[in-house]
Amino acid sequence: MVEKKAKGLARAKESYQDPSYRVKQLKAKGKKIIGYLCIYPPLEMMTALDLVPYRLFGDIREPITQADSCLPTCVCPFLRSTLDLGLKGKYDFLDGVVMAHACEVGEKLAHIWRTYLTPPYSFYIDTPHTKHEAALEYHRKLLVDFKKSLESYTGKELSADKLEQAIRGWNQQRALVRELYEMKKPDPPLISGVETLQVMKALMTIPPEEGNELLREVISEVKERKDGPKKGTRLLIWGSIIDDVALIEMMEESGANVVMDDTCVGSRPFFPDVEMTTDPLDDLARRYLLDLKCPRTFEVAVFGETKKNYMADLEARFSYVRDYAKEWNVKGVILYGLRYCDIHGYEVPQIKDYFDSVGLPSIYLEHDYSEAALAPLRTRVQAFLEVLR
Amino acid sequence: MYFVGVDIGSTMTKVVIISQADEILSRVIGPTGAEHRRLANEVMAQALTQAGLLFEQISYVVATGYGRFNVPFADRQITELSCHAKGVSSLFPSVRTAIDIGGQDAKGLKIKDGNLVDFVMNNKCAAGTGRFLEVIAAALGLKVEDLGDISSRSTNRVTISNTCTIFARQEVVARLSEGVRLEDVVAGLHDAIASRVAGMARKLKIEPDVILTGGVAKNIGVVKAMEENLGQRVFVPEEPLLTGAVGAAMLGKDFALKALAEGELVQKERRLEEVTFYK
């Protein structure tokens, strides 16, 4: 294999187009590659033991032909596609998988994956769905189990020192991602939505120190460039996973600039740091349960107030997205749901009410995770842009 | 100055020519079809003849509908959502909610001060569109334009599922074989399409006045069923197929006059030529 020479955006694009290229090189050098689903498995615990985490993705361009034999068709098409790729042998390079109870399908898939694909190592984290004190304690206990499991797999001890060092490395990456997103605040932004997605996806398929290097290259490149995006209607996109550029490309070709997102191959997994106190496992348990914002977690404390004051409830749940909209100066919000993504589906009527109440135009788009299904969305996007003009 | 709106829908192609005083000088409706679709320029030529105009006298052409990118002689493409909103509010200024049921899609539009402010569209499924009625009319050997009159004789409407065209068709055949009267089955079909589209439109928080447009609005049975489902009066324009083309022409006028005022109206080099297709 030839070492790739590309830097910055070109390197991100290459990595986006061939996501497993780098980990296959690393595997050839003896590294263990651990596939993970969703944003809930704590990556720090894996990299602290020199394992290379690799985010599992689907492929909207590949028809699902095998997964239907072991998953019902009425569930998340992204996860069906991911399993389909697994069944077709495209994840055979993995040494193990770590999956969490991100959503109901994610939970079942963790077990189905182990049944049909029998990876050498696997671990399932039963991440709680609510934010009580008891849930936090339970989550910490699960991470202790995960620690023991990783220790017995690697034969190494996961010391507090190693973990803290790993946390600092990932926090550095998070700071660099936030710095990259600052480049999206000017009008026009210095980096397009398509390019941003390529960088974010690349970060999830390479070790963190290489990701940090890539981010530094991209940041200095876009600061200097003269061929950046042209002016367009500034949009924020909130919703289910987007792991292919086709949707964002269609929006940007129609005259939009996707300048901010709240999605899980975007700002969502990177914006909150791990706040470091005295016990790194405590810190990880808190960060991954309390600080990550995803509709998969039910905001139970706030829910207690819902009947008394609906608007206050909405404010508590969604004001961070409104803050993004203000800071990145967007004109409209795309609410994006994958078909059968119940966790986002539950939120849509309420987040729409919230944006209506603060006077920010929004539109809901549902996509069934295939490239062909983008055509009908084009008319909706173009009409939304006409509304915003 | 004269302005043209060309609305290429999945089933019908509509052309409207208006004057600067918003007077409608001609309106022509022709089938889009598989082959006829190439002939949008002929529908356009008919409209010019009707208005007694030459193509060179036209100041601005806006194309809309799902075939909007296939019109080589258009100055601009605008989505059918914006065009319907404009067309509807120019004809009925009091309308706040418009529901359009066409050959292959259904949409709900929220209109404020003459502008589109929000919308919903059906997902990729024939149920809740004109195709639903066409498929079932064909299965029964009926003409789709007769369905409205047939249903008006109904006294005991049956319930037909609104989720799938194929299932509904099987249900219709089953009901008829049980001896249910045709008019009661057809009335059930109208309620099925109306309840499905009303359910979708409700996401917009419907405000009166409500108008129903698109080819399906010509079916009095669906209009009545929609009124029942929404619990309020539903208006229908005299020619419900044309609101998109009228709106397209009017938006074209707005663009042309604005460009003229700014000294930027450039007459585009264009010829009346055949519809082009995506490569």
The largest sheet of chain B has its strands arranged as 3-2-1-4-5
Poorly predicted runs of chain B are: none
Major β-sheet of chain B, in short? Answer: 5 strands, mixed
Q: Could you tell me the strand content of chain A as a percent range?
A: 5-15%
Work out the radius of gyration of chain B: 20 Å
What's the shape of chain B? elongated
Helix content of chain A: 40-55%
The radius of gyration of chain A is 20 Å
User: What share of the residues of chain B lie within helices?
Assistant: 25-40%
Layout of secondary structure:
The complex is a heterodimer of chains A (389) and B (279).
Chain A: H1 8-17, H2 21-28, E1 33-36, H3 43-47, E2 52-55, H4 77-87, E3 96-100, H5 104-117, E4 121-125, H6 133-154, H7 160-182, H8 193-203, H9 208-224, E5 233-239, H10 246-253, E6 256-262, H11 280-291, H12 300-303, H13 310-327, E7 332-338, H14 342-357, E8 362-367, H15 375-388
Parallel strand pairs in A: 1-2, 1-3, 3-4, 5-6, 5-7, 7-8
Helix pairs in contact in A: 1-8, 1-9, 4-5, 6-11, 7-9, 13-14
Chain B: E1 2-8, E2 12-19, E3 24-31, H1 40-51, E4 58-64, E5 76-77, H2 80-91, E6 97-101, E7 106-112, E8 115-121, H3 130-140, H4 147-151, H5 165-177, H6 182-201, E9 210-213, H7 220-230, E10 234-235, H8 243-261
Parallel strand pairs in B: 1-4, 4-5, 6-9, 9-10
Antiparallel strand pairs in B: 1-2, 2-3, 6-7, 7-8
Helix pairs in contact in B: 2-8, 3-5, 5-6, 6-7
Characteristic key phrases:
heterodimer; A: about 400 residues; alpha/beta; four-stranded parallel beta sheet; 15 helices; 8 strands; about 50% helix; about 10% strand; globular; B: about 280 residues; five-stranded mixed beta sheet; 10 strands
Describe the structure.
Chain A is α/β, with parallel strands linked by helices. Chain A starts with 7 loop residues before the first helix and ends with a helix. In chain B, strand 7 and strand 8 form a beta hairpin. The longest helix of chain B is centred in the last third of the chain and has 20 residues. The two termini of chain B are 34 Å apart. In chain B, the strands form 2 sheets. Chain B has a 5-stranded mixed β-sheet with strand order 3-2-1-4-5. Chain B has a 5-stranded mixed β-sheet with strand order 8-7-6-9-10. Chain B contains 8 helices and 10 strands. With 279 residues, chain B is an alpha/beta fold. Classes of the chains: A alpha/beta (389), B alpha/beta (279). Chains A and B meet through strand 8 and helix 15 of A and helix 2 and strand 8 of B.
